[in-house]
Specification:
Elements (H helix, E strand, L loop, with lengths): L5 H44 L7 H39 L8 H4 L6 H29 L5 H26 L1
Helix pairs in contact: 1-2, 1-4, 2-4, 2-5, 4-5
Length: 174
């Protein structure tokens, strides 16, 4: 136990946090591709079977996967913030460092074009998790055989999609 120091523990914590962050980034990014594939499959099956009600599967899929995407994105950002604001300064203090520890955590946030890239990513997220399912919902509403219970379901989904879209916009500001 003599070789355990606070700095070694903090470095081990850093390694684990970065591993978790890397895993979450991969999962989050794959959610986007999976969502696009799932919505494409729903549309294809709906068109092929001529059952417009199946289109309402797309909003449900996008709500679940969109929320999962957001939660992972929040955790990814929280890890970066923790490393930047807590772990790095504490390690710097212990090491009597002159500069900031884990400089990448700060540097990559200040590069040119970051704000534009964040806005573009938000647009992609909104297109995937809000616009696509709303197109499916509108296509359902325009179909000749619209069942009242499914209309109520689609209205509830629309309200929930609006809340999800608002969450994406809120996250984009930070």
């Amino acid at each position: 136990m003599d070789d355990v120091t606070e700095s070694k523990v903090l470095l081990a914590e850093y390694d684990r946090l970065k591993e978790e962050q890397k895993t979450r980034i991969g999962f989050r990014d794959n959610l986007l591709y999976f969502t696009l594939a799932a919505v494409t499959a729903v549309v294809a099956v709906s068109v092929q079977s001529r059952q417009a009600g199946l289109l309402l599967s797309a909003p449900a899929i996008c709500l679940i996967l969109g929320w999962t995407y957001l939660v992972n994105d929040e955790k990814i950002s929280a890890i970066g913030c923790y490393v930047r604001d807590r772990l790095g300064p504490r390690l710097g203090e212990l090491a009597s460092a002159r500069g900031a520890m884990f400089g990448w955590e700060v540097y990559h946030r200040d590069v040119a074009g970051r704000a534009v890239r964040k806005r573009l990513q938000t647009a992609v997220d909104l297109f995937t998790y809000l616009i696509l399912p709303m197109v499916c919902t509108i296509a359902f509403w325009c179909s000749p055989t619209v069942h009242p219970l499914l209309v109520l379901t689609s209205l509830a989904q629309t309200l929930t999609l609006a809340a999800l879209g608002w969450q994406f916009l809120r996250r984009a500001e930070g």
